[in-house]
Specification:
Elements (H helix, E strand, L loop, with lengths): L2 H10 L2 E4 L2 E4 L11 H13 L6 E10 L9 E10 L3 E10 L2 E12 L22 H8 L5 H8 L4 E5 L3 H4 L7 E8 L7 H11 L21 E12 L9 E11 L2 E10 L4 E13 L3
Length: about 290
């Protein structure tokens, strides 16, 4: 297990303070605010800690209300709303400086068989045929802001391999779609709850960027203020995030200084394991 994956597992391993009360910490990476995927992942872990092992998360719906402060621990308070025969419902509030920064409702279900179908995965090149993230960083690192350069230079727990580099190279208005292969950069424990939390962490990566492509925007565009506003996720099937998964993303709409994005997460064999939807702020800066 590499150091970056070890650090991610430490971040997701919350401290139990009291009944229904947990404390999480952030990596000291130089970012001015906490990465949204970290808060989603930690909130899911807090909820998981109050649910029996016979139930798996099937959905979560969260709202970002304030930027997280990476210098200060985050307190997660879990409300055990309902424990039913088949479903368990939890509400989690993340608190810093005495104020809520994030709230999330999540639902767990006993494992059941039922009717099955899913939309087919897009036909894209396999990850082993694509440029590695290390080489990609080498090509673009000189054009990235300082904080992004530092991010790329660090070992990270999630590897990304975009199918197309056109969005990085062009300032043209492009179709608001992208396909990115993702996986953990090291081995994880076999506990399904950990793989679900790591996928929740990774699901916030690159998604909102997709809304910028229709407007000629890019990931590092300093003229646009970007921030996640809400995040929803549905877990359809068991997964192993150590293996490559395709994150197929599109953005059906932007309006009112907000961009709406969605994504399907598939195994290499084309099985849909999760779906994601998010709306975020994409406000043009006036300075």
């Amino acid at each position: 297990m590499n150091k970056a994956v070890q650090n991610l597992l430490k971040i997701l391993d919350l401290e139990n303070l009291e009944h229904n009360l947990f404390r999480g910490r952030s990596p000291q990476s130089g970012w001015q605010r906490v990465f949204g995927g970290q808060v989603i992942g930690q909130a899911l872990v807090a909820a998981q800690r109050t649910v029996g092992d016979d139930r798996r998360v099937h959905s979560l719906h969260g709202y970002f209300m304030r930027p997280g402060d990476p210098e200060v621990p985050i307190i997660y308070e879990v409300d055990r709303i309902r424990d039913g025969r088949s479903f368990t419902t939890r509400r989690v509030v993340a608190i810093q400086h005495g104020q809520a920064i994030f709230s999330m409702g999540t639902s767990f279900q006993v494992v059941e068989d039922g009717l099955e179908h899913f939309i087919e995965m897009p036909e894209v090149p396999k990850p082993d045929t694509l440029i590695s993230e290390k080489k990609l960083a080498e090509q673009f690192i000189d054009h990235a802001p300082e904080n992004v350069r530092k991010y790329w230079q660090r070992e990270r727990p999630i590897e990304l391999r975009p199918v197309s580099l056109k969005h990085y190279l062009s300032k043209e208005k492009l179709e608001p779609k992208q396909n990115i292969w993702i996986r953990s950069t090291g081995e994880l424990p076999s506990d399904p709850a950990i793989h679900e939390a790591v996928l929740a962490y990774a699901s916030d990566m690159t998604l909102l960027d997709t809304a910028l492509y229709a407007h000629g925007g890019r990931v590092f565009d300093q003229k646009i203020q970007v921030a996640s506003l809400d995040h929803s996720m549905w877990f359809h099937r068991p997964l192993n995030i150590e293996d490559w998964h395709l994150y197929a993303q599109d953005s059906p709409n932007s309006s009112g200084a907000r961009g709406f994005t969605r994504g399907g997460i598939y195994t290499q064999s084309g099985i849909l394991v999760a779906s994601v939807a998010q709306e975020g702020l994409i406000r043009e800066r006036t300075w």
